[in-house]
From TrEMBL:
Family named by the database record: Belongs to the glycosyl hydrolase 37 family.
InterPro entries per UniProt: 6-hairpin_glycosidase_sf, 6hp_glycosidase-like_sf, Glyco_hydro_37, Glyco_hydro_37_CS, Trehalase_Ca-bd
One Gene Ontology cellular component annotation held by this UniProt entry: cytoplasm
Pathways per UniProt: Carbohydrate degradation
Catalytic activity: alpha,alpha-trehalose + H2O = alpha-D-glucose + beta-D-glucose
Organism domain of life: Eukaryota
Neutral trehalase Ca2+ binding domain mapped to chain residues: 85-114
GO MF term (any one): alpha,alpha-trehalase activity
Region (Disordered): 55-78
The protein, known as: Trehalase
EC number: 3.2.1.28
Pfam families tied to this protein: Trehalase (PF01204), Trehalase_Ca-bi (PF07492)
SUPFAM superfamilies given in the database record: Six-hairpin glycosidases
């Protein structure tokens, strides 16, 4: 006990103010773990035990006033969780959305008791950022069942860049991690998109994984309260079969590994972990996973990135492709392919581990199989140009979209057949009515969804015919990566086991790099012919039906630089001519305003068009500019994107969302297009952010220099930062 202001104050526990919530607010176990760790690290730090906080568990005498805590020491507050939460929300959340933001018009100050005075002396917590951090901390403490807490002031006014990075690395990734097995099926099985009257966990197991079928059947039998439905998938996955599952949507099983059960000393199965995007997307996605991996790797979570590569290999083996996502209704479509780059990045980090080369071998074999059987054959391959298109098979209305999504398209057909909207969808999906025009519409719509860019006026009603810059850049990258992997890691001769061959490549016993180098050269040549426009300094999609280059300006043009397909001259022209057309306040827009055209009631905004910006476009562009030596451009774009995210995080209660309106400086998270914005509807504290935006934040920080990071921490707009740096450089030059 110490004397302070006449009160006998109990000694205050010392905990790193920035420790993870489970340590900071956690149970006795985590406190004990912390104590052990602290002992291991420092003999001089004061020990911390549960008893230390017993003295704080009584009720707070409330007295307004004295602001006389000893200076020079970091301040700590003693706070009763429930009453303070109530008072805070009542006073400061004036628009009642359970968040404290710059749009609330409360007094923006609340007094809390100091820990040193046992809560008797009170000081003010002021301003939106600190008050919203207080709300977040109290919300999390309540989640941990805490009634009273000792809270470091440092946790409330933490540098926002450090706070957001810390949350992403230590909380958000955890909250987004899933594994499909008995321990997790209740969480992983949930599908916020489930449209049926009786949503329940359901798992489809491929016939090639009978062990898993037995495993899940036992779980279902032993845990009837789960209502887990276990179904063996047909060996022959056709569009009609997939449509027949429409009333029984379910998860598709993923890879499992064995682990030793400590108690029974027996081996048992556990799911290989993966990260979900967040919001309504609670499954393993194709290209989201790649983007997330970039962030996971810099967050020292290579294990999760590795897990996702292993799960992709499982998907290719059992479902024939990397799926849009592992739900039954996504069985016929894929997403933009990134497997080779992802595997190489993971390999780079694990190469000293004993199974690293085997990991790379499996990944490259799977990528080769995917290349031949998904992307380089019809219907996706255009035999005339040799370029590829997003063009998945499928049938009917995509059931995972929001009910109103196709209303304007389908209602005229329902009227024509004298049916209600619902009756018509049912009749069309079961082929009781035939509408060839609609078939064509949905073929393109499925292609749009396979492209990941759902939806955009660039792709609507035409996507299945487009040899897009994005897809062909990615396939070029596959070709050069595969060549390089075979040459460098497998002595230029990679044996292809029978299970990795396809009907078209059944006689290929081994692969060598030359054929892949040749393919890459050919693709570059064809893209130069079909997609490159030297006058406009950009690559454009090519319409294989009309046999002409399109004119929609898309940020995917920079993927040609990301993949290394653009020549240095093309890269210079793109930097000079194309970049200014896409660069906005918060980074790159997905497409230009001119290409999108006018929008209004009859022609609503599409989420992958101007003025929206998405994490994948930013991340790929940074790497693209760095690859060709345009460091200043890469840094500037990264800074602008991170500035926008940080500012929204500070002003809007820690918000991190799926996409941003990059032309909107004040509230860029406001996106009304299509299904709105994922990540906005949290209560009190954000728990998971959004997968690829989390990744872009920590990945982007790696690109910025220390000076930029500091400027970001003080929410300095790019122009102000740039002016300051230029002034400093000028004065140094003059000196
Ligand atoms: O349910 C509507 C659509 O939702 C997904 O698309 C969007 O979210 C995905 C996950 O973050 C992302 O990969 C995609 O780029 C987004 O446009 C889904 O992928 C679509 O197939 C689905 O129709
Ligand atoms: Ca509010």
């Amino acid at each position: 006990m110490t004397e302070r202001n006449g009160h006998r104050a109990p000694s205050i526990p010392i905990v790193d103010p920035y420790s993870n919530a489970d340590v900071y607010y956690g149970d006795g176990d985590s406190l004990a773990r912390l104590r052990d760790r602290r002992r291991a690290f420092s003999a001089t730090l004061q020990d911390f035990s549960r008893e230390d906080i017993q003295g704080y568990l009584g009720s707070t005498p409330s007295r307004r006033g004295s602001h006389d805590e000893p200076s020079g020491q970091p301040r700590k507050f003693r706070i009763e969780v429930d009453p303070t939460l109530d008072a805070l929300l009542k006073q400061e959340d004036t628009d009642s959305n359970m968040q404290i933001t710059i749009e609330d018009i409360g007094p923006k100050t609340i007094s809390v008791g100091t820990a040193g005075s046992s809560g008797i002396n009170r000081v003010d917590v002021r301003g939106t950022y600190m008050l919203s951090n207080l709300l977040q901390e109290l919300t999390i403490a309540k989640d941990y069942g805490r009634k009273t807490i000792i809270l470091d002031e440092a946790r409330l006014n933490e540098n926002p860049v450090s706070r957001l990075s810390r949350l992403i690395k230590h909380s958000f990734w955890k909250a987004l991690t899933r594994r499909i097995d008995g321990s997790n099926i209740e969480v992983a099985g949930k599908d916020p998109k489930d449209w049926t009257a009786d949503p329940r966990p359901r798992i489809y197991v491929p016939p090639g994984a009978p062990q898993q079928f037995e495993y899940y059947s036992n779980i279902a039998k032993n845990n009837p309260e789960l209502r887990l439905d276990v179904i063996m998938l047909d060996a022959n996955i056709t569009p009609d079969y997939v449509m027949s599952l429409v009333d029984k949507p379910g998860l598709l099983a993923l890879a499992m590994q064995t682990k030793l059960n400590d108690k029974t000393q027996e081996e048992e199965l556990e799911g290989v972990p993966f990260v979900v995007p967040g919001g309504r997307f609670n499954e393993l996605y194709g290209w989201d996973s790649y983007m997330e991996s970039l962030g996971l790797i810099v967050s020292d979570r290579v294990d999760l990135a590795k897990g996702m590569v292993i799960n992709f290999c499982f998907e290719i083996k059992h479902y024939g492709k990397i799926l849009n996502a592992n739900r039954s209704y996504y069985l016929t479509r894929s997403q933009p392919p990134f497997l080779t780059d992802m595997a190489l990045r993971v390999y780079e980090r694990i190469k000293t581990e004993p199974d690293a080369l085997e990991f790379l071998r499996n990944a490259v074999l799977a990528a080769i199989k995917e290349y031949y059987s998904v992307w380089a054959c019809e219907p996706r391959l255009d035999p005339v140009t040799g370029l590829s298109r997003y063009r998945p098979e499928g049938w009917g209305v995509p059931p995972e979209t929001e009910p109103s999504h196709f209303l304007h398209i389908l209602q005229p057909y329902a009227d024509k057949h004298g049916m209600t909207f619902k009756e018509f969808v049912e009749a069309y999906n079961t082929r009781k009515v035939a509408e060839p025009e609609l078939d064509e519409y949905f073929m393109h719509d499925r292609a749009v969804r396979e492209s990941g860019h759902d939806t955009s006026y660039r792709l609507e009603r035409v996507c299945g015919n487009l040899a897009t810059v994005d897809l062909n850049s990615l396939l070029y990258k596959y070709e050069v990566d595969i060549a390089r992997i075979i040459r460098i890691h497998f002595k230029d001769k990679l044996n292809i086991p029978v299970e990795f061959r396809t009907p078209l490549t059944k006689d290929i016993e081994f692969e060598s790099s030359a054929a892949w180098d040749r393919r890459a050269r050919k693709r570059k040549h064809r893209m130069d012919q079909c997609c490159w426009d030297a006058e406009r300094g950009m690559f454009f999609d090519y319409d294989t039906a009309k046999k002409e280059r399109t004119s929609y300006e898309t940020a995917t043009t920079f993927w040609a630089m990301w993949a290394g397909l653009a020549s240095p001259q093309q890269a210079a022209m793109m930097t000079e001519k194309a970049l200014p057309r896409f660069e906005a306040f918060g980074g790159l827009v997905s497409g230009t305003e001119e290409s999108r055209g006018p929008v209004g009631l009859e022609r609503p905004n599409r989420q992958w068009d101007y003025p929206y910006g998405w994490a994948p476009q930013q991340m790929l562009a940074w790497t693209a500019f760095l690859r060709y030596g345009y460091q200043e451009e890469a840094e500037r774009l990264a800074y602008k994107w991170l500035y926008m995210i940080t500012k929204a995080f500070v002003d809007f209660n820690g918000i991190v969302v799926e996409k941003y309106d990059v032309t909107r400086p004040i509230d860029p998270h406001r996106v009304d297009a299509e299904y709105g914005n994922q990540g906005t509807n949290f209560k009190g504290a954000p728990r998971e952010g959004f997968g690829w935006v989390n990744a872009s934040y920590v990945y982007g920080l790696e690109i910025l220099n220390a000076h930029m990071r500091r400027a970001l921490g003080t929410i300095t707009p790019y122009e102000t930062y740039k002016k300051a740096v230029s002034a400093q450089e000028a004065s140094e030059a003059a000196f």
